[in-house]
């Protein structure tokens, strides 16, 4: 049976870098959704997480197919599906080295997000954008996207996602200011990265 806790479990699995675990949990749910012919995929928001998990385990063809279904969904939940499809398509394009296609997909996703009251999903799309642009060495664009994502995650109290975003921001090369010169965002990044490192060290010592 499908229920509300499923999407949360899947997002948590991805947040913990367990894409393989997310695929294991999610594939049967996706098969059930397809068998039942659910048109409005936002009712059971599973597809986008599955597509992202597929990319994480290297199953690019499977991710592409899920993104295709999202993109072609009917009117019900259309904005949500377009936003999620764009993010998934961007991940697929980036995984295959097509940065131009990734940017086009992200533009589509962000245009849909502008009319969609889903701040958590917007922040996740901005996180994807920041990563893709960082790898493409478009540092200013990456920094802007990640800073926006961090602000949203902080506002929502999504601590694990804020730490993950701060870690991405810290990987962008650039001049390191002295402690007294840090902006509020830079100070927050430094705090989150330090806290995340402390948690990791504590876990390893157990």
Brief summary:
With 206 residues, the chain is mainly α. It has helices at residues 5-15, 19-36, 47-56, 60-71, 78-95, 99-113, 119-135, 139-156, 159-170, 184-204.
Write the layout of secondary structure elements.
Layout: H1 5-15, H2 19-36, H3 47-56, H4 60-71, H5 78-95, H6 99-113, H7 119-135, H8 139-156, H9 159-170, H10 184-204
Helix pairs in contact: 1-2, 1-3, 2-3, 3-4, 3-5, 4-5, 5-6, 5-7, 6-7, 7-8, 7-9, 8-9, 9-10
Distance between the amino and carboxyl termini: 37 Å
Structural class by helix and strand composition? mainly alpha
Major sheet description: none
Give Rg in angstroms: 17 Å
Structure summary, number of beta strands: 0
The secondary-structure element order is HHHHHHHHHH
- Global shape: globular
Number of helices: 10
**Low-confidence spans:** 1-5, 176-182, 199-206
Per DSSP, what share of the residues sits in E-state strands of 2 or more residues?
Answer: under 5%
State the share of residues found in helices, binned by percent: over 70%
Overall pLDDT, averaged? 83
Write up this protein.
The protein is mainly alpha-helical and 206 residues long. It has ten helices and no strands. Helix 1 packs antiparallel against helix 2 (19-36), helix 7 (119-135) runs parallel beside helix 9 (159-170) and helix 8 (139-156) runs antiparallel to helix 9 (159-170).
């Amino acid at each position: 049976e499908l229920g509300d806790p499923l999407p949360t479990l899947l997002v948590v699995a991805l947040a913990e870098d367990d894409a393989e675990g997310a695929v294991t949990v999610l594939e049967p749910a996706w098969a059930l959704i397809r068998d039942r012919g659910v048109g409005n995929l936002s009712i059971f928001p599973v597809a986008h997480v599955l597509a992202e998990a597929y990319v994480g385990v290297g199953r690019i063809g499977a991710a592409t197919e899920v993104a295709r279904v999202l993109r072609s969904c009917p009117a019900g939940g259309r904005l949500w599906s377009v936003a999620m499809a764009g993010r998934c398509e961007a991940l697929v394009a980036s995984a295959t080295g097509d940065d131009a296609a990734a940017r086009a997909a992200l533009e589509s996703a962000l245009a849909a997000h502008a009319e969609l009251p889903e701040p958590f999903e917007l922040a996740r799309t901005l996180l994807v954008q920041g990563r893709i642009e960082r790898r493409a060495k478009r540092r200013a664009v990456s920094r802007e996207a990640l800073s926006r994502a961090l602000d949203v995650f902080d506002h929502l109290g999504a601590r694990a996602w804020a730490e993950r975003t701060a870690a991405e921001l810290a990987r962008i090369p650039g001049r390191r200011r002295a402690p007294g010169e840090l902006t509020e965002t830079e100070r927050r990044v430094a705090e989150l990265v330090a806290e995340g490192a402390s948690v990791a060290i504590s876990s390893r010592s157990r």
